Structure formats: C-alpha cells, structure tokens
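Example 3.2
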Amino acid sequence: MKPLISIAVSACMLSTAFAGDIPANIQTAIDNPLRTEENRARDEDRKPGKVLAFYGVKEGMTVVDLASSGGYFTEIFSGAVGPDGEVRAQNRAGPRIDDRIDELTAHFAQFGNITLDITEPGTPLPYADNSVDVVMLSLIIHHLHYSEEAGETMPASSAGIYADVMRVLKPGGVFGVIEHKAADGSSRAESAGWHRIPEATMKADVTSAGFVFDGSAKKIHMNPEDDMKNFWGDTGLRGKTTRLVHRYVKPAK
C-alpha cells in the first residue's frame, strides 16, 4: 500500500434535497447532555440532524469521523449509533491535536463507545478492510484537491486517502463529505485559495477512487448571499457558507 496522508450509499440515487423527519436515534444524540456547550452552539449552522439522517446513520453502526478535531460530529455519532455501535474519532498527529489528546480522551470516555485514534502522517487508517459502515469527512477536502506540484490535477496523496477510505468501508458503505462550495468552473488553485472546492471537482476526485455518487442534499446548507468566490474567514461567512453535502457509496460488488 502506498504511503498516505492520514486525516480523520445505498442502492438507489437519493433525492437532491433531504426533506424527511429527523430519526429518533439522531435527535436523541443531538440532545445528549454530555455534548459540550461549544459544540451545541454550532448546531444551528451545521444542522447535524439533517446531515446524519441524509447519511443514514443508524443504531449499531461503526462510524469513522475523519479529521474529527474537537469532536463536533463525533459526539452526535456516539448517540446515533447507540451502545451497540462504535465511533472512531480520527486525527492526524501534530501540534493542532497533540495538546488536546488528554482532554479529548477524557471527554470521549463519558460516551462509552468512542475511541480517539491519532495516526501519524503518511500512514494508513488503522481500521480493518471492509469493517466500517460510514466514514465522514467534514470541511477538509478543500485542503486536499490542490497542490502546486499537481496543478489542475488531483494530488496523488489525496488519491491515496480516498483509496484508503474505500478499503475500510464495507460494501455498500457510505462516504459522507461536507465542504464549502466554490463557484462552478473555478480552478483548483483559485478555489483552494478560498478554502472551498467546486462541486464537479469534488465529484471527480472522490469517484476516481471507485465510489458511486449517491446524492446531494442541496438544501441543507444554502446561502444566497454567499457568492462562493470568497474566503469565508475574511468575509464574515464563517458557519454561513453554501456547503456541499454529498453521499458516496462503495459498490456492493
């Protein structure tokens, strides 16, 4: 297996908008009093109930939260999969996470089904082949779709990451991706400067690993005041961007 840069789908095409009710297991998870107040404050912007319902998170599942950082989605996955499920909160070793390991380990221990996994850069994900029901990657792909060396092609290191996600997912498993949307037709270099990605580029990169695109929840994160040609950190749109919410599936055969 080639070295990787570690970072923490169903049979039919889903509707382009999720309009269903929030399942009880997911709503209970959102209401869990063990969640931090800092994470709760993000719920209005992140709309986790709609996101996890769109990805089909159910009790008893094994979920990997890639590049989980402070565990916003990790906390909610824990309640959604229940005591018979398992959540792996993955982060790449480095200064942004190393100082928080003890804090996060203690916090996650309260939930009973979360494991914090710190992986070294350049190593595969520490999960067995065909062992995971859902892998989610939130607001990270804008770091993966461009490098100066690769120019307007996908970096080889990113291809390795998607291949590794494919490896650990069960046949029929879901790869859920959330990302700040860049204006259609923008280049890799341009959109990377905005910390965004065009929808067509994200689809092309992820499906190149063999995933099948299985739907887009377009109405979860839409802001008509976002022209998608800006760096949200400089324009007051942090937490308010138009975002892509895509579902990809590992083929059953």
